[in-house]
Fold:
Amino acid sequence: MFERPRSGERALLVRIGFGQPPSQDELTELESLATSAGAEVLGVITGTRRSPDPRLFIGSGKAEEIHTAVKTLAADLVVFDHPLSPSQERNLEALLQCRVIDRTGLILDIFAQRARTFEGQLQVELAQLKHLSTRLVRGWTHLERQKGGIGLRGPGETQLETDRRLLGNRIKTLNARLDKVLTQRETTRRERKRAAIPTVALVGYTNAGKSTLFNRLTGADAFAADQLFATLDPTVRRLELPDARYALLADTVGFVRDLPHELVAAFRSTLQEAREATLLLHVVDAADPERSERIEQVNRVLEEVGAGSLPQIEIYNKADLVGELPRVEQAAEGHARRIWLSAQTGAGTDLLVNAIGDFLGPEIVHGHVVLAPRYGRARARFFAAGAVVSEQTLPGGETDLEISMPRRAFEDLCRTEGLPDTGLDPSQTCAPGEPFLQSRVPTRWLS
Structure:
């Protein structure tokens, strides 16, 4: 029986076209995925079929061709750019006498290398175990049934049953831990909603430059590299906007063609940031010749996760590589529809910040709130919402707060704390010692 090796980096890649030969773009992405996983690519074998073979996925002739290539090139790993059933994977390993993994297994391996936070590592391990749980019945000699003998006959647990039970217990533990993490994240999101702090999420095809743009806009140091799936963990930072306003910018995992559904489910918390965002920034690699197809693929995944109806601005990154100048293309309703920029050089990022500010503008109020000393809780809530631009104590003991915050949050806070919601009317007057709003600087509802 074939003993499955525990290592192997010398890889042979296989891509089969159904109805038509594989495209060069598909082959290039497969090589990029394998390289990102750390494999040494020895060669790529392609073919064309009408439909997958139930036993080997490929035909017997193609299987023999791969077997010959494995021996000739001394490969110890064959990567199929397709989802394989457990039985197909087992049959191919027995025939080729080397490790065989499918597209899902390859992407999971990359995810395992990239996950850095506790949450990301939990998500990767959970996805790996769920993938492995369907593949226990394969060529592992240590999973053979226990031999009978004196004192060993009768009811007992086979090695396969033991492994299934251990996997099931570990999956339950990981789900419980992830539920706890998700509860904490949901609490944070509720606080954002309560304060009506807008969230802007970066989405797009993997390696389009999302993390580089994220770092450029927020001054963060999120990991960014010229490789697939450089970012897996959800990262949220404050984004400064014009007129002393701010929003929260979220960096999310990149998408790829045929992203396995179990991976979408595993990274639900990362994609939750996109699903609940006020605005999506769809980052596109302007230098990618297949950018139109990439845009369609990302939009399909957004539909799958329930974010397809959210407003979005297309960000054509790497404009300098295609000789395009930074510019904004407007939509019919007046908002920015497409922005050309370079995250690497920073050219055009000011246009993006202004466009985000214009989009979120109608929800922001800016002015002064004067509070009597007994309204300390209202003062604390303005600070907790991140709305205070400056603070000054007046001779009478009142607190003068210059605020900039979302309109809905301002109205909710005024209502719950008993403050008059006057829209910062300069003519507002009130009884001495009562809270009031005054316009000591030009104040307006932004529109």
Notes: The longest strand covers residues 40-49. Confidence is low (pLDDT under 50) at residues 138-149, 422-447. Residues 159-195 form the longest helix (37 residues). The chain is about 40% helix and 20% strand.
